[in-house]
């Protein structure tokens, strides 16, 4: 009898072990995963950086510099320490520098105008624009524009292509001062058009950016100049006539504020 019980228990244990083995071998079914709800992007309105102004009355000072140098021989040269003080004044007093590419839309529409806008321009493309002015502009985080005479790049104390590309990559806008700096009003329409087209082509090749504006050499221009500037694809043309820029001056005959040694920035922008 005892032997029968032992045999029965042994058989029962075998069944139990086999059943456990089958349960372990059978993988458990993974719990169903809930798919995440699709994320809907909230449409945000464009960021308003300024205020809308009446373009007919909007006037923006476009400052005209040439050389930034300690050797002050004429009123086209501003000493670096004076230029530094002027840029510091702009930064300390809440002025916002805009490029000429940005100025175009501001003058035409009056939309989203930053508080206290001002444009900084340099004529000719002198070497000291790179060695003296550029570090000061970076120091105060200011934008600027240089009207380049393309035939003088790397010649006669003008900066070279490497400096031009470095400043352009930083955000200093390169614009046209023609190829040879001839007085445009002495040239035929075809000659003017070539000067404007060829300089634009060179600058766009060097920078990889669209050239938006031209400054007429010595401020001289005529009706052919205005037609040629528009035909060449410029949005704006600048003179040396005094005043703040307003679209009613004509987008191809815009005035500027000439900066001379000893001039205070406060008087220039008021």
Automatic annotation (TrEMBL):
<dbReference type="InterPro" id="IPR002509">
    <property type="entry name" value="NODB_dom"/>
</dbReference>
<dbReference type="GO" id="GO:0005576">
    <property type="term" value="C:extracellular region"/>
</dbReference>
<dbReference type="InterPro" id="IPR011330">
    <property type="entry name" value="Glyco_hydro/deAcase_b/a-brl"/>
</dbReference>
<dbReference type="GO" id="GO:0005975">
    <property type="term" value="P:carbohydrate metabolic process"/>
</dbReference>
<feature type="signal peptide">
    <location>
        <begin position="1"/>
        <end position="25"/>
    </location>
</feature>
<feature type="region of interest" description="Disordered">
    <location>
        <begin position="24"/>
        <end position="53"/>
    </location>
</feature>
<dbReference type="Pfam" id="PF01522">
    <property type="entry name" value="Polysacc_deac_1"/>
</dbReference>
<protein>
    <submittedName>
        <fullName>Polysaccharide deacetylase family protein</fullName>
    </submittedName>
</protein>
<dbReference type="GO" id="GO:0016810">
    <property type="term" value="F:hydrolase activity, acting on carbon-nitrogen (but not peptide) bonds"/>
</dbReference>
<feature type="domain" description="NodB homology">
    <location>
        <begin position="116"/>
        <end position="270"/>
    </location>
</feature>
<keyword id="KW-0732">Signal</keyword>
<dbReference type="InterPro" id="IPR051398">
    <property type="entry name" value="Polysacch_Deacetylase"/>
</dbReference>
């Amino acid at each position: 009898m005892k032997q029968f019980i032992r045999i029965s228990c042994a058989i029962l244990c075998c069944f139990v072990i086999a059943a456990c083995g089958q349960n372990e071998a059978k993988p458990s079914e993974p719990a169903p995963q809930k798919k995440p709800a699709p994320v809907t992007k909230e449409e945000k309105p464009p960021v308003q950086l300024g205020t809308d102004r009446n373009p007919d009355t909007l006037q923006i000072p476009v400052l005209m510099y040439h050389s930034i140098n300690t050797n002050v021989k004429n009123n086209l040269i501003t000493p670096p320490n004076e230029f530094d003080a002027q840029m510091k004044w702009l930064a300390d007093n809440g002025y916002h520098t805009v490029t000429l590419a940005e100025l175009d839309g501001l003058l035409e529409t009056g939309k989203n105008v930053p508080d206290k806008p001002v444009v900084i321009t340099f004529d000719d493309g002198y070497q000291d624009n790179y060695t003296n002015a550029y570090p000061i502009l970076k120091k105060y985080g200011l934008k600027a524009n240089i009207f380049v005479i393309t035939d003088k790049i790397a010649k006669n104390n003008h900066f070279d292509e490497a400096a031009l590309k470095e400043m352009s990559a930083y955000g200093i806008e390169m614009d046209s001062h023609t190829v040879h700096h001839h007085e445009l009003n002495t040239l035929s329409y075809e000659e003017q058009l070539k000067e404007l087209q060829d300089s634009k082509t060179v600058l766009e090749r060097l920078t990889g950016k669209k050239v938006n504006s031209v400054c007429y050499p010595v401020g001289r221009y005529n009706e052919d100049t205005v037609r040629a500037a528009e035909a060449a694809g410029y949005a704006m043309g600048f003179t040396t006539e005094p005043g703040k820029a307003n679209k009613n001056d004509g987008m191809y005959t815009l005035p500027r504020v000439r900066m001379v040694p000893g001039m205070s920035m406060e008087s220039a922008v008021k």
